[in-house]
Write a structure and sequence with these properties.
With about 240 residues, this protein is α/β, with parallel strands linked by helices. It has a seven-stranded mixed sheet, with helices on both faces. Pfam families: Hydrolase_like.
Length: about 240
């Protein structure tokens, strides 16, 4: 008699929506790891709005080397990215998936970095520019969803991005929020949730900070952070 075939597993769909039930479900995987959540455009790669051409992908200086260090130190690495161009019809999911595949392949081949997960928000903002879903940053849905999927301890994790919306998303998820100041933030709309735990101008200094802090306790309020190492400015002294 023929043997029954095992059911095929369904690959993770980075576009799958976050539901309130998903976001409220407790994380039960153990042991939980610290994670660096990485905004894609303007943080990991040069910001070319709505680009889906793999030939135009350019990593920011030092990004690949920094991620290799942090992965070797035991951190999970998850890319989180708003892609409103999908909702606006600027490109298709297949085109973005092809770009994502090349991005992950290059990180692995050029830097030995294996990304644990990619979370994508395919929705556009509302008429006032605010999230109209649970996952568009500064909403925390992508981070919470990734924490469930990858056994991440949000209290020992950080989101790094190039705008204060990214910082806010990290804080709303219960993680840290780090600003890689590449000039993308021009409005500087302030609130307690939008104050970076630390502000950096290069990936090497950011990796130094995260590697040091990952060995410590859960996030300490910013006013009690230890004296910063050379290369970043804390939120208290940022202009």
């Amino acid at each position: 008699m023929p043997t029954a075939k095992a059911p095929m597993s369904t690959p993770h769909d980075p576009f799958s929506p976050s539901t309130m039930r998903d976001l409220q479900r407790p994380v039960t995987r153990a042991p939980q790891r610290p994670c660096l959540f990485i905004d894609k455009d303007g943080t990991l790669v040069e910001n070319l709005p709505h680009n889906t051409d793999p030939l135009l992908l350019r990593f920011l200086p030092g990004a690949g080397q920094a991620l290799a260090r942090l992965q070797a130190a035991g951190l999970a690495l998850v890319i989180v990215t708003n892609q409103s161009g999908l909702a606006r019809g600027y490109f298709t999911r297949a085109e973005f998936a092809r770009l994502q595949q090349v991005l992950l392949q290059r990180l692995q081949e050029e830097h030995g970095v294996r990304i644990d997960g990619v979370e994508v928000c395919p929705h556009g903002p509302d008429s006032d520019g605010r999230p109209a879903c649970l996952c568009r940053m500064p909403a925390p849905g992508m981070l919470i969803r990734a924490a469930h999927r990858h056994g991440v301890d949000l209290k020992r994790s950080w989101l790094v991005g190039d705008t204060l919306d990214d910082v806010e998303a990290g804080h709303r998820a219960g993680a840290g929020g780090l600003l890689l100041d590449s000039g993308a933030e021009t409005i500087w709309r302030r609130s307690p949730l939008r104050e970076p735990d630390a502000r950096f101008f290069d990936w090497e200094a950011l990796a130094d900070y995260v590697q040091k802090m990952a060995d410590g306790p859960a996030h300490t309020p910013v006013e009690w952070l230890p004296r910063p190492p050379t290369g970043y400015t804390s939120a208290l002294s940022a202009g």
